[in-house]
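User: I'm curious what two different proteins look like when written out as structure tokens. Can you demonstrate?

Assistant: Sure. I'll show them one after the other, since each token string lines up with its own sequence. Here's the first protein:
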Amino acid sequence: MKALLYEGPRDIRYESMDDPQLADDRDAIVRMTRCGICGSDLHIYHGQGFSPDLGYCVGHEAVGEVVEVGRGVKQLKVGQPVMISAAVGCGACARCLAGDINQCLNNQMQCYGLSHRLEGCQAEFIRVPAADFNAAPMPEGLTADQALMLTDNLPTAWFGLKGARIEPGDTVAVVGLGPIGLMAVEGALVLGAGRVFAIDLVPERRAIAASLGAVALHPEGAQAVIAEATKGRMADAAVEAVGAEATIRIALSVVGRQGRVSVVGVNQTRKFEIDMAVAFIKGLSFTIGTCSVPQHWPELIPLIQGGRLHPERFVTHEMPLSDGAEAYRLFDAREAGALKMVMTA
């Protein structure tokens, strides 16, 4: 089959690799129909990956059609359209069955496309372990792009909002307006935020946030603007969707007393200093982590079906998988309004 392989910094190649095989009776093979590039994929693209491997297939966001199932697969059928969770669990322990794959009791939580351990989703075919749990039928009434956003981006944004404990009437700041940040803006308003400040360097992304109903701000001066708008009370909560030290510091600076800061941007800095005296005086809450995708599906699917959330609106490019190297380049350079990049087999 053809797939996008990581061969080194800024070196993504469309090449042939072996077709995936069933490795367990509970596995399924899915023919990819649409896959996405995530912001966290850029860490790999830049050469700051999560393993020393080379030549592995990248990507962890995909929807497709089941083409083969193991004897232990009971819920999925050949020919069925499915969406695939970006990270997988054993699908058998109590934590996984509750949707919390991060706490898999059998220590089988892993993510597609970080190494040869579990090859990625930017490929013509994908092996899905414990498929009855780690994939789900395409929800009724959803488009393929809406389902694709449910494989990672939208649950991650929702996880960030939940970590920030958004309450009706809250003043919320979202720092970083890539697809996840913009979905957090929309989600914060759905959760009843009274006002959302959306902070990013890129004017086009600020414009999208403003169209959603947010107050769009450049990072320079954002703290002063929020202070004036809130009469010094600052934001109740902040969601940070980049993972860079500078943007985390902005998130910490724009919340007030009892402020909640939720970081979902991937950060590979080994050390990060927080002014503990300021945190103590403010009574700050700080959370950082990655979401368990299936845990959020029961809440998010009805919100999309009911027209409350529109994650597909952030898709800006659709390209064939064979143009994957160019898709990565455009996304990394933020050229041509690149936001959410979708590739087709």
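Here's a second, unrelated protein for contrast:
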Amino acid sequence: MLGRCSFPREGERVVCAVSGGADSLAMLALSAAAGCSAHAVHVDHGLRPGGQEEAAVVEAAANTLSATFEALSVRVEPGPDLEARARKARYEVLPEGIMVGHTADDQAETLLLNLMRGAGLDGLRGMRATASGLRKVRRPILALRRSETVALVTALGLRTVIDPSNAEVRFRRNRARHEVLPLLADVAGRDTVPLLARTAALLADDAELLDCLARDLDPTDTRALAAAPRPLANRALRTWLREEEGPEHHPPSYEDLERAWAVVTGRAVACELSGGRRLSRSAGRLRLDGSQQR
């Protein structure tokens, strides 16, 4: 199992986000087995009672695995986009390089969710073992299955936390997990999670090549963008717009890119983009106002 993980070298200190579920507990156990100096962090979102009890479960597991432990709290009010807001609040208090327990099953769910949003190549390559966003999140067990993490923590005798929200169908990811993936398996006559994870990995290779080629383009030079193949120009432009807004934000939408492309090609001298930003051109150069300029 360790051979399919991507933990750092023996002796390196790693910080693991541990909710108390089987995936994150298995990640903590495997990081210790890999010889890392593991530190477990539990974040209580304040969304349901029992946060202290859940933290105690994680602390007990950390003690069993000779890992250090830390409990953090954030406040997330109930309401729309609860999952996204809870995730944002969690990552704001977690350190850069945090390790999270996403598995191949999570990868398959992510690909399906992004497909339903009409995502392009970047969305369909799914999650990366090492993300390049604000926190540079690491996913060392992305090649493992959820069934394997459950089997591991059971074999180790670790108590787990059961999150009741994982069964709530109001969350789209839960429907993908409990309804869409089983239906796909029934139609295909086989487990489709490995197939979807493989698709994401293949697309990730293609996306990485395009990333490398797009780095040679100046995203503010309208002549260079217009002369380049549209996919490369779009990629350079998308990367620049995202970096100017902040890497923790989602990439620009298709609509934003189309508006920006009108400015690049001279069909418009300026346009409004999401986030209250304004893109304009002057003397063949693009300028972005209203962003988090760095």
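A detail about the second structure: The radius of gyration is 21 Å.
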